[in-house]
Amino acid sequence: MSDEAQNSAAQNADGLDTLGVADGPWDWPSVPGDRDFVSYGALRLPAVANMRVTGEIDPKTKQCGAVSIRVADCQVQLQVIAAPRGTSQWTEVRQAISKRLRTAGAIEAQEGHFGPELSARMRSRTKSGESIEIPMRFLGVDGPRWLLKAVVMGPSVDSSETRARVAALLSNCAVDRGEEPMIGGTVLVLDAPGFTPGDDEIDQGA
After folding, report:
1. Which of 75, 138, 147, 161 would give a disulfide with 89, using CB separation of 3.0 to 4.6 Å?
2. What CATH number did the domain enclosing 153 receive?
């Protein structure tokens, strides 16, 4: 195998090769009967062997507010956000992101697989003081009383292959929002199976 082929294989060693684009993300009561998931509470990820998942646990609250999944050479952070019934929480969240980040880098609206999204080039500095550019994409999918928000960050964030892999991942997820009343914009606490504060990664079993 050539060096280029080896590098490509390493880049895409995310466990998602067999995952095709589906018609999700689904609301939990509407999930097709032939689907298997790993439960993170309100968020259900497709049961894919060797998918690389990191639970993001707040050291103060000891609660998990997001998970990050390796997709190609990028990280995809997923959050579930409560939304009022019949409204687009993503419109409000997208506008807030655009306003907040516009002074920190170049940001533009685009149309993606799930509708309007944002593409950004953020400037940052390394510990050594070197200025770097961080490519990012912000996606959102509105469901019944919930929003599934995704932040994609990494070198190949805009490549067609990475876009397809991200679309496949999100379209195979499901959200179990529950019936309890919540204020719109509330980030739902997730369960992180197998995680304790200090853990950083697990491999999902099929």
Report:
1. 147
2. 3.40.1000
**Residue 44: per-residue pLDDT:** 96
Identify the burial level of 195 via C-beta atoms within 10 angstroms of its C-beta, where 0-12 means exposed, 13-18 middle and 19 or more buried: buried
**Domain range for 142:** 49-157+179-193
Burial class (CB within 10 angstroms; exposed 0-12, middle 13-18, buried 19+) of 24: buried
Is 137 contained in some domain?
yes
> What is the separation of C-alpha 21 from the centre of its chain, rounded to a whole number of angstroms?
15
Q: Mind listing the pLDDT tens digit for each residue in 122-136? A: 877 778 888 888 899
Whole-angstrom CA distances from 126 to 104, 123, 151, 173 are 16, 10, 21, 34
Closest by Cα among 44, 2, 3 to 24: 44
For the chain, how many structural domains are there in total? 1
pTM assigned to the model? 0.86
Nearest to 174 by CA among 78, 92, 84, 77: 78
Q: Classify residue 107: in a domain, yes or no.
A: yes
3-class secondary structure, 82: strand
